[in-house]
Amino acid sequence: MNTYYSERAHEYEKIYFRNDPIHQKEQTLIQEKIKELFANQSILEIACGTGYWTQFVAETAKYITAIDYSDEVLKIAQLKDMSPSKVNFQQGDAYQLNKISGNFEGCIANFWLSHIPKSRIHEFLIQLHDRLGTGTTVFMAENVYMESIGGTLVYKDNDPNTYKMRTLDNGTKYEIIKNYYTEEELKSIFVPISNDLQIYMGQCFWWISYKIK
């Protein structure tokens, strides 16, 4: 996964400029939601990638600590027009958040949940909640499955995860884990561990926000 996103770094943001009015409308709704939700807060952003979402929440947030495992995507993120006094990009492991310093009032983890093996979701969320503490607001956004977009969906015997075959501009092919969730599946994961859970299911994206129980 790290190799794939490092290799894809310079072409990654093409996905955000897809010529699809519904896609663009829902993207804008995500941008507005995170700006509203985290205004004047110090937040942690997990799997920030090239900083695409960081640049929007930075318009209203007080301070952002944005982490990613890939140095290549972080190099691109650091070139964006965001003040280092307001945004700190750093290499970090989403499964070892205890190593990330700071006090956080909120957390964004956009387009990360789908890449977590289903066997590790509980592990990830427990350490995330331990790191942030009760009452902290968490926001996540992800893709809704669309058959014609994002490569071939791959199923494997005796494996609860699904995968996508992705081809980069240079022709290199990668198989990456990419899980898709229904509203009921999201409720089963998050209702037991959250308060004020809100779920939005769009045509291209879904997103959730909640407070840690």
Descriptive overview:
- The chain is of the alpha/beta class and 213 residues long.
- The protein has one domain: Rossmann fold.
- Helix content is 26%, strand content 27%.
- It contains six helices and ten strands, in the order ααβαβαββαββββαββ.
- Strands 3-2-1-4-5-10-9 form a seven-stranded mixed β-sheet, sandwiched between helices.
- Strand 1, helix 3 and strand 2 form a beta-alpha-beta unit.
- The protein is globular and about 40 Å long.
Task: Write a concise synopsis of the structure shown.
The chain is of the alpha/beta class and 213 residues long. The protein has helices at 2-8, 21-37, 54-57, 71-77, 121-132, 183-190, and strands spanning 42-46, 63-68, 87-91, 106-108, 137-143, 152-155, 162-167, 173-177, 194-201, 205-212. The protein has one domain: 3-Layer(aba) Sandwich (Rossmann fold).
The protein's oligomeric status is single chain
Sheet with the most strands: spatial strand order: 3-2-1-4-5-10-9
What is the total number of structural domains?
A: 1
Total number of β-strand segments?
Answer: 10
Shape: globular
Main pleated-sheet profile = 7 strands, mixed
Percent helix, as a range, is 25-40%
User: What is the structural class?
Assistant: alpha/beta
Figure out the total of helices. Answer: 6
- β-strand percent reads 25-35%
CATH superfamily: Vaccinia Virus protein VP39
Order of helices and strands: HHEHEHEEHEEEEHEE
Report the top-level CATH class.
Alpha Beta
Enumerate the spans where pLDDT stays under 50 for 5 or more consecutive residues: none
CATH architectural label:
3-Layer(aba) Sandwich
Mean pLDDT: 93
CA-CA gap between termini? 31 Å
- Rg, rounded, reads 16 Å
**CATH-defined topology:** Rossmann fold
